[in-house]
Amino acid sequence: MVIGIEADIASGKLGDGSFLPAERELMAEYGVGRGVVREAVARLASRGLIEARPRFRPVVRRPGLDAAFGALEGVVGHLLSAQAGVKNLYDTRVFLEAALARNAAIHARKDDVATLRSALEMNEAAIPDSEKFYSTDVGFHAVLYQITRNPVMPAVHKAFTAWLSPHWMRMPRSPERNRINFLSHREIYTAIIERDPDGAERALLNHLSAAWEYVRGTFEMP
């Protein structure tokens, strides 16, 4: 049954945003009981193929990158509860963003630089407000993923943010610490506009390494 519904979604027979057939229709079509239908709906929802809410008809969501990463949320949440789980995921982010900083220094176009500069300016303006600063911090790093013009990368950034945000929101915040992070962002930006890939990578690594040292005690990590 799950395979059949997946095929209908992939072919477009069940379009994105459309309602899944009613339970009784699915029971008749596949010759199964209500319990089997509900189990199938739960499995499809876990794969990001439908959006299921109590007392509402399930809605079809055509597979996409966001859905693919969203389907991993439960698994990643389990991994993050393990010892050093947050650090392992953070190290993966650092490894990737170091490469993204180098890429930006080499390949960023004028419009990319303008977008990055705008993100940096918003980050500076938000220094007094830690909640806004966090949002603009995320926005600054998001531009590095966008510069690749690879649609996988923004989805990866969105997933990293979703997975790490609950942990990151626990760290102490202050305008003074916000300013330090802003200055690190400015160093990354300066190296990028100077077309200095080594400098951009170094600034990125220094920034994220310092950020980890600041918050590691919050997570009681080794």
Write a structural description:
The radius of gyration is 22 Å and the shape is elongated. It is mainly alpha-helical and 222 residues long. The protein has two domains: 2-62, Arc Repressor Mutant, subunit A (Orthogonal Bundle), CATH 1.10.10.10; 70-219, Up-down Bundle (Four Helix Bundle (Hemerythrin (Met), subunit A)), CATH 1.20.120.530. α10 runs antiparallel to α11. β1 and β2 form a beta hairpin. Helix content is 70%, strand content 2%. The protein starts with a helix and ends in a 7-residue tail after the last helix.
Tell me the structural class: mainly alpha
Helix content: over 70%
- Beta-strand percentage range: under 5%
| Poorly predicted tracts of residues | none
SS summary, helix count: 11
Strand order of the largest sheet: 1-2
Q: Describe the main β-sheet briefly.
A: 2 strands, antiparallel
Order of helices and strands: HHHEEHHHHHHHH
CATH architecture of the largest domain: Up-down Bundle
What is the name of the CATH superfamily of the largest domain?
GntR ligand-binding domain-like
Number of strands: 2
Shape: elongated
Identify the CATH class of the largest domain.
Mainly Alpha
> What distance lies between the first and last C-alpha atoms, to the nearest angstrom?
47 Å
CATH topology of the largest domain: Four Helix Bundle (Hemerythrin (Met), subunit A)
Pfam families: FCD, GntR
Keywords: DNA-binding, Transcription, Transcription regulation
Protein name: FCD domain-containing protein
Domain HTH gntR-type: 1-63
